[in-house]
Amino acid sequence: MKKNIFATQWGIIGVGAFIGIIAALLQKLGNPGNMGICVACFERDIAGAIGIHRAAVVQYMRPEIIGFVLGSLVAAYIFKEFRPRTGSAPIVRFVLGVFAMIGALVFLGCPWRAMLRLAAGDGNAIFGLLGLIGGIWIGTLFLKGGYNLGRVQKTYASAGWLLPLTMLGFLILMLIFPQIKGEAKSGILFYSVKGPGVMHASLIISLLVGLAIGFAAQRSRFCTMGAFRDLILFKQAHLFFGIIALVVSAFVVNLILEQFHPGFAKQPVAHTMQIWNFGGMVLAGLAFALAGGCPGRQLFLAGEGDGDAAVFVMGMIVGAGFAHNFGLASSPKGVGPHGIAAVIIGLIVCLFIGFTMRKRVN
Amino acid sequence: MNIIVDAGGLSCPQPVLMTLNKIKEIKKGEILIKVDTDTSKENVSRAAQSQGWEIADVQENEGGYQIAIKKN
Asked: From A304's CA, which of A70, A142, A294, B29 has a CA 20 to 30 Å away?
């Protein structure tokens, strides 16, 4: 039996700490406030870069996301874990991806960013995290009741390559059409000239960091949703130690870099409508639990050949389009004009999925 | 005769849930669990050990792994 040190207790703690440190440093190196890494926000920025939505302040082809998928692909190949597979209810995963993104954008962050916001003193994140836990808890009730999306099937290696190749294509587009300072468009790619979309570390740093995290997270199975799910469902704290390490290390680096500003009002890219910070993340947490992974984990799974996780990622990117085109996403001023309706509809859809898709498999 | 839990093709947490349900049901003995990813293998092994079961054997085959766990 080959030994995987990343999957040990100290392995997952090390990976969590690594992500926390890197995320806080990325903010110092140019990424937006309390957004060193945010999988949902960065996928939303990618949706903006390719024009799926036209919210001018959030358009940038984030190399971190590209790195996550490709880093995981490299790790999977080196350790012979690339297993191309698909066919476990892909359309359901797409819909869950759409609503996971909408929920996350009502809160303004994925679980990673919720923890990074907390580690930087943003008290609003507490409500988001409580919502996340609540959503995952509802998900565990469905899991106990027999909810599952069925078995995957082995598929062609090339099918497992499609999302990594898409990410590689995005990277090539970025090299062909690089950002031009002060310009909102370069070739076919959209860029922000103000707002969070213009704030970023250099391409090479973002990409290298993404690759390193993708590699480490594939090996360790780091998952923020799984951390809470396993704790609630099995009373197992293995993954949970990883996210504790993330929060603690990001907190320490934030203190050192003077990025720790405790409070509720005027936190970067955050709002104070606590019911919807909570509600948005209930929706996102439930969608992640029903889909079997947080948005980061879905990227790492896609990198190791999981076509269903790739469909979830596509769902999130399309969901970002809906979120900004329909006024569902929040802004520092508060929730969007139709954000509340979208959360309620999303919860109904997730409950529909949870109640109707259950079958005893043994 | 071995009791078999076929979690092949299922993603986490299903393999762990199925294993723990079987452990609860039979309390002691030997169970053979089929999984198809390294993640599932690690998760199932960890869950079984947390219940006081030992990993008797792990076989790799083309489709994934067969994990034998036992408790006397």
From this structure: A142
The alpha-carbon gap from B26 to the nearest alpha carbon of chain A, in Å, equals 15
Question: Do A29 and A168 contact (CB within 8 A), yes or no?
Answer: no
- CATH number for B47: 3.30.110.40
Determine contact: B10 vs chain A, CB below 8 A.
Answer: yes
Domain count, chain B: 1
**Nearest-angstrom CA–CA distance, A33 and A36:** 7
CB nearest A362 (choices: B12, B18, B39): B18
Q: Nearest Cα to A150, choosing from A87, A96, A93? A: A87
Q: Cβ contacts (< 8 Å) between A306 and chain B: which residues? A: 11
What's the confidence (pLDDT) of residue A1? 46
Return the amino acid letter for A188: I
Which among B5, B13, B43 has CB closest to A143?
B13
Instruction: Determine phi and psi for A58, rounding to 5 degrees.
Output: -135, 65
Max CA distance (Å), chain A: 59
- pTM of the predicted protein model: 0.96
Its ipTM equals 0.93
CB A200 within 8 A of CB A36: no
User: Residue range A44-66: average pLDDT?
Assistant: 98
Of B7, B18, B50, the CB nearest to A236: B50
Q: pLDDT (tens digit, 9 = 90+) per residue, A328-340?
A: 999 999 999 999 9
pLDDT at A361 exceeding the cut of 80: no
Which residues lie across from A89 on neighbouring strands?
none
